[in-house]
């Protein structure tokens, strides 16, 4: 069982944004920018391109809804999207609020993000999720 599956199961706490029967969105605990959110399928699949086409389409639509909520909750020019997939063997999409392209630099993570700020941002994004 991956760490993401344990988060989805509630075994590990998370800053939950949204979920449905297939997908779960939560704040990244090592964010590159405030509001950095992960979207994961509830079904464990290591590589995003091993996900069946119809499920991958639904995952992107779910991620789009999360991105719209992020943009409403956090002042930003756009919400960047990337798939890296090397750090956890469970497919996931990164959504990052952007003012400029440097905001998507995964080498520059926020050190020791304040839990209260993370909780407040998660609630603000979740409130905008439609």
Helix content: 25-40%
Strand order of the largest sheet: 1-2-3-5-4
Oligomer: single chain
The biggest sheet, with number of strands, parallel, antiparallel or mixed sense and barrel status, is:
5 strands, antiparallel
**Overall residue-averaged pLDDT value:** 96
Total helices: the number is 3
Structural class: alpha+beta
Distance between the termini: 30 Å
- Pick out the low-confidence regions: none
* Strand/helix succession: HEEEHEEH
Mass-distribution shape: globular
Please write out the topology.
Blueprint: H1 3-8, E1 16-19, E2 23-27, E3 37-41, H2 53-73, E4 78-82, E5 93-98, H3 115-128
Antiparallel strand pairs: 1-2, 2-3, 3-5, 4-5
Helix pairs in contact: 2-3
How does this structure look, described?
The chain is of the alpha+beta class and 130 residues long. It is built from 3 helices and 5 strands, in the order H-E-E-E-H-E-E-H. It has a 5-stranded antiparallel sheet. Strand 1 (16-19) and strand 2 (23-27) form a beta hairpin. It is globular and about 35 Å long. It starts with a helix and ends with a helix. The model has no long low-confidence stretch (mean pLDDT 96).
């Amino acid at each position: 069982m991956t760490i993401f599956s344990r988060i989805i199961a509630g075994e590990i706490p998370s800053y939950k944004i949204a979920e449905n029967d297939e997908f779960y969105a939560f704040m990244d605990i090592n964010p590159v920018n405030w509001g950095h959110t992960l979207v994961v399928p509830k079904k464990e699949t290591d590589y995003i391109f091993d996900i069946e086409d119809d499920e991958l389409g639904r995952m992107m639509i779910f991620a789009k809804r999360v991105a719209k909520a992020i943009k409403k909750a956090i002042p930003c020019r756009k919400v960047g999207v990337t798939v890296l997939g090397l750090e956890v063997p469970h497919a996931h999409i990164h959504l990052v609020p952007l003012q400029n392209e440097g905001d998507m630099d995964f080498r520059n993570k926020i050190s020791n993000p304040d839990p209260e700020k993370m909780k407040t941002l998660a609630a603000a994004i979740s409130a905008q999720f439609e």
